[in-house]
Design a protein that fits this description.
The protein is α/β, with parallel strands linked by helices. It has twelve helices and 14 strands. The strands form two sheets. Strands 6-5-1-9-10-11-12-13-14 form a nine-stranded mixed beta sheet, sandwiched between helices. A five-stranded mixed beta sheet has the order 3-8-7-2-4. α9 packs across α10 and α11 (295-307) runs antiparallel to α12. The protein is globular, with a radius of gyration of 18 Å.
Length: 342
């Protein structure tokens, strides 16, 4: 593995093994699931994982939103070991698969290994190109601030200039987020977060409110923007919500917050300092679309790969769009062995 002292970007989140399958509408109906949504598994969803494996052709793909984004960013960077990732896995085969995938992709992973709990999984139900995610966090839920006190974690955090945390991690350890966010704000480092799913905005508002003041960048999509707008009384216009979110108080006054909302095939909206800019998407022909699983993660990965090289926002968005376009032509958040982005 690489040396922790050359890491520029560190992600922290829930490492999950995706169990992906194409399913008919009846499966979504049976488990009360919506297309293009993400939820945490409840008791009623537990039989779903076995049903997928027993009845459908499944693919096992290293997942978890933050790890996906970090893997894509690393793929688009010129040398391995510029990115790191921290999360919690179990001491089992699935955990081994996640660790191997990170290593193969050049990401310096530092997992907390929980001996008593299995590695988290995410059912990815692909239906008419859309994906519905049902996450069973299991070991991913066991991450604690103490892991950040290990020598390797300290070295990674010290080395990094940029941090990325998907909103899904808000349900696991806000204390861990703040343990990175507060020193980052004090030392002028950059923290990016993702709204990640409407349910987080709706039900984990206090946790989100604790982290948002430290965020220099906030990512999301149109449904998350609408959920936030409804929750805050801002309405559901994506550009308006982006402006309001960008204007919320910040812990560090050195730079204005930048909000980036993707809208699928529609333009991506960037808001900061009272101004919104829309960047058009080069729409993919429908016959080339395989599935949208990982598209949002890939966008963030592409964006961050240029941000850490000090490229301008237009270039960052372009790289995000390009990465998403690559990923939606493949199954899950996977990519070719070489990156030809220019």
């Amino acid at each position: 593995m690489t040396e922790s002292n050359k890491i520029t970007l560190v992600g922290m989140g829930n490492p999950l093994l995706d169990i992906s399958a194409e399913v008919p509408d009846s499966v979504l109906t049976k488990y009360g699931l919506e297309p293009a949504n993400a939820i945490l598994a409840e008791e009623k969803h537990m039989p779903l994982y076995k049903e997928l494996v027993d009845s459908y052709e499944v693919q096992y793909i290293a997942g978890g939103a933050t790890q996906n984004s970090i893997r894509v960013a690393q793929w688009m960077l010129p040398e391995p070991g510029l990115t790191g990732f921290m999360g919690s896995i179990g001491s089992d085969e699935f955990g081994g698969k996640l660790a191997a995938c990170a290593s193969e992709d050049g990401v310096e992973a530092h997992y907390y290994v929980d001996q008593a709990t299995p590695t988290g999984t995410c059912a990815v139900l692909v239906n008419s190109g859309d994906r519905s995610l049902v996450a069973n966090l299991a070991a991913a839920n066991k991450f604690a601030p103490a892991h950040l006190e290990t020598e390797k974690a300290k070295a990674m955090v010290d080395s990094a200039k940029f941090f990325y945390i998907a909103g899904f991690f808000l349900t696991v350890s806000v204390d861990s987020i703040l343990a990175i966010a507060k020193p980052a704000a004090e030392s002028g480092k950059v923290l990016a977060m993702n709204l990640s799913a409407p349910f987080l905005v709706q039900f984990f508002g206090d946790q989100m409110a604790a982290a948002l003041p430290y965020c220099d960048f906030v990512f999301g999509n149109e449904s998350e923007a609408a959920a936030l707008g409804e929750k805050k009384g801002w309405g559901t216009d994506v550009a308006t919500v982006a402006l309001k979110l960008a204007a919320l108080p910040k812990a560090s006054g050195t730079r204005a917050r930048i909000v980036v909302f993707t809208q699928g095939a529609d333009g991506t909206i960037v808001a900061s300092d009272g101004i919104t800019t829309e960047y058009k998407v080069d729409v993919l022909p429908e016959d080339k679309l395989v599935d949208t699983n990982g598209a949002g993660d890939a966008f963030v990965g592409g964006f961050l790969s240029q941000l850490i090289k000090n490229e301008d926002i237009a270039k960052c968005v372009d790289a995000g769009h390009w990465a998403s376009r690559v990923i939606i032509q493949r199954s899950g958040c996977t990519f070719p062995s070489t990156c030809d982005y220019e």
